[in-house]
Amino acid sequence: MAVSSTARSQAEELPGVELTGFGTFGAAYNTTNKVDLLRDLSQTNGVGYSRKLDFGLDSNVGLQLDMHSAVRTISGAIQVVAKRDHAGITPNLTLAFVRYAEDDWSLRTGRVGFDVYPNADSRLIGYSYVWQRPPVEFFGPLIFSHFDGADLQFRYRRDNQEWRLKLYSGITNEKVEVTPASTYFLLNHSRLHGGHLEYRQDPWSFRASYAELHIANENPALQSSLDQLRSPGISFFVPNANPVADKLQMKGKVFRFSALSLTYDNGPWLWEAMAGRTLTGNTFIPDYKAGFISGSYRRGKFTHYGVLSAIRPLTDPEKAIVLPGAPPELIAGANALNTQMINQRGWQTSLSAGLRYDLTPQSNLKFQIDFVRSHDNLLLRRVQPDWNREAVLLSATYNFIF
């Protein structure tokens, strides 16, 4: 949420509405023009090949309307965020829910955030976390940020310990840019179920998360390949055509997200470590594991931080095997498909260092340098054949809430 906890608690005492907001104005510079680096998979353009100096990678602006009824237990919120995605820079309705809350439990229904990982549902609010952006290797592959449905949260407190259980279910409605550019994979009507269990005892907190996404639609960029692999007689030249098609198909697949996180927050020190695994049963967004460790130290208005993050594939893609004597166009098509599937794996490492300076209680400046090394192209766009697979990203942002 954009509003501070103090302001929120004061607002909840009286019925009415309150307008809050947040935003980030940023600039990013990629030292190489051989590849576009992305913030996440919702973006079609990044920084590097498209433009070496870019102002849209991290920039966004959001408005939130919080509604408080005369009944203390009922409230609601609507949030609209404009950021760069598959349609350019356009506003999107990211939250729209009604909330019923008692002392230790709450129920929200409508459009709510997807927080399978800590910070996942607030990753657009640059003011709210230490880094320039959430570690790309961990958060970037998440292909949606909200869903339409409901979530239910329980809280149990005893002495200085606290347990939280959250369960949610709904459907997604977002788009993912695929290759070729301007072709989109629709998540519409894909069902989501999941939850997490969290334990807190200052200065430690621990969370275990799990979610399932049941894909309802086929990826249009893969349809021609699927049709060819399943065409009559293709098995004469490609004996494993059916297994390749089954692995390539998106519709009907179940994406399974699981993660563990550990946080130590004590005085000037903040340490965070997260590890996750995503199983897709698919070769276009293959199975992968990812994680990061982050440490920061605050002194006055300055916070220095460092992050090491990585993503690695868990499986090798099912390659199409073409027998001798196959038509040249079939050989060329199979080779292109195999290359594309190999490049779609997630293999990337980033080492980042940065500085956050708090201008006011509602605004800050951040400066970060990222050293990126990538073997595969899941989190990249417009990769040039002569790229040496390394890049340095320099970025600065002004972040605020009101």
Task: Please describe what this structure looks like.
This is Porin. This protein is mainly beta. It has a single domain (23-56, 90-401), classed as Porin (Beta Barrel). It is 10% helix and 51% strand. It is built from five helices and 21 strands. The strands form three sheets. A 16-stranded antiparallel barrel has the order 1-4-5-6-7-8-9-12-13-14-15-16-17-18-19-21. It has a two-stranded antiparallel sheet with strand order 2-20.
Number of domains: 1
Q: What name is given to the CATH topology?
A: Porin
Largest beta sheet, briefly?
A: 16 strands, antiparallel, barrel
Count of DSSP strands: 21
What oligomerization state is this entry in? single chain
Structural class: mainly beta
Q: Estimate the mean pLDDT confidence.
A: 90
Question: If you compute it from the alpha carbons, what radius of gyration comes out, rounded to the nearest whole angstrom?
Answer: 22 Å
* Approximate strand percentage: over 45%
Quote the distance from N terminus to C terminus: 11 Å
Reading the helices and strands in chain order gives HEEEEEEEHEEEEEEHHEEEEHEEEE
Annotation field: number of helices: 5
Write out the strand line-up for the largest beta sheet, numbering strands in chain order. Answer: 1-4-5-6-7-8-9-12-13-14-15-16-17-18-19-21
Protein name: Porin
